[in-house]
Each structure stands twice: as structure tokens, then as C-alpha cells.
Records
---
Amino acid sequence: MSKLLYSRKTAYLAGAGVFIGMLISVYNLTLQYVTAGLAVFLISLLYFYIYIKSQDSLRECKSVIHMVILITCLGSLSGTALSGFTLTSALTATGISSALLILAALIEKV
């Protein structure tokens, strides 16, 4: 289990899952797309949760959380761009990105 947890391929796949999950969720705001995107997003976040839980270093945990926040913001903004910058997608991506950037600022104070 530990080899799989610390494998670079697993981390890259989980990062891609976070990106693709947000992209799908924001690209088309129908129930099916949002559900599918959030399922991929949450499964990928589960990997990062397990990885962070196994770390002793607060600095390592912060860097992983910042990376996930950045990938999530990029995924939501890419979904908006692919949807043709519709108002609902733009507002959704803005809300997601704003909330995550606030979370990043709060994490820095810990």
C-alpha cells in the first residue's frame, strides 16, 4: 500500500483527476456532468487526504494543499473557457476559485 501511496504515477493521476473533475463540473452545468465531475474530483481528493494524513511534516502538507488548490482553480477556469465563457460557468469558476484562494490564505496562517 505504501508503494502505491508514494508513487509518482499515483500522484499525477490524482492531480489529473482533480483537474478533470473540476473541468467536467464547470464545462456543462447539467446534473449529469456536475455529478460525474464531482465524483472524479472527490475520488482524487481521497488520495490526497490519505497522503496528507500519513505525513508528519506540516510544510509538506501545506505544499500539497496549495498544489491541489491551484489544480482545482485551473480546472474550473479551463472548464469555463471550454464552455465558451457562459455566465453560469464563469460565475461558478469565480466562486470556486475565490473560495479556494481564501482557503489558501487561511492555511498560510496556520
Note: Helices lie at 2-5, 8-27, 31-53, 58-82, 87-108.
---
Amino acid sequence: MWTKSLVAEILGEPSLSQTAGSSLAQFEWRNRVIVIFSDLTNEKAARQEKLLLAKHRELARHDVVVLRVRDGCVVPLYGAGGDLDARQIREDLDVNEVRDFTVVVVGRDGSVRLHANEPKKPDELFALFEGGNAAPNRHAPEG
């Protein structure tokens, strides 16, 4: 138990009570989403993008969509996503007016699994999709 809370503290994992809201609803129960927020010239964001995109097989295996939110625009870097509102995504994920860098990981169930201000190794991010609280085989509620 202590190890799990220490890992959560190191990774910056918030309470799973935060959800992605309606802005990413098209991905719920279908994809996991990694959103990279930055200003135009941020080297941390460029490093995070490069690290993730080099792992395209793992992104596909985990059904991940990678989005960049920058300068009021949303650009899918891996996977598809349409009709996305940068302002609404910022609001739903509690990332207001990024002047630097933030990466947010959202599970298939819409819960926020990580909110960090430093780039993370892809394996650290993929580990959030494994284990007991990642709900990899969980299905959407019926009805």
C-alpha cells in the first residue's frame, strides 16, 4: 500500500475521482488518451511527443490516442479524433492557460490517471494502463 501511494506521489497521479468531462467523450470506453499541453516553443512538449511517437506499437496495443493542445488548437498526433475543442479540453482537464508544459493521461473510463508538469517515459505512462485500477477489460455500462 505504501509503495503504491509513493508511486502515485512520484508520478503525480491524482485522485481517480477527476474525469475528463464531455470534451473527450468520443474516446470513452474506446481509447485511452494522452493530452500534451504546451506553448509554441516548449522543448518539454517536443521531447514528450518524440518519446511517445517512437513507441507506436505500444500506443496501438493500448488503444491510445495522443493529442497536442497548443495555441487554441487540438492536433491528433497518434490516432484519430475529430471536432475537439481546445478550450473545453483545457477546462475539463483543469489545465488553464499553459505557459509551459503539462501531460494528462485519461483512461478508457474517462478517469484522469496522471497530471504532470514534466515529461514522462512512455513505459511510465503505459504502466498506468496496467494493473488493478487501470480497468483494461472493463466495459461500458449497458443501457
Note: Residues 4 and 10 are 10 Å apart (CA to CA).
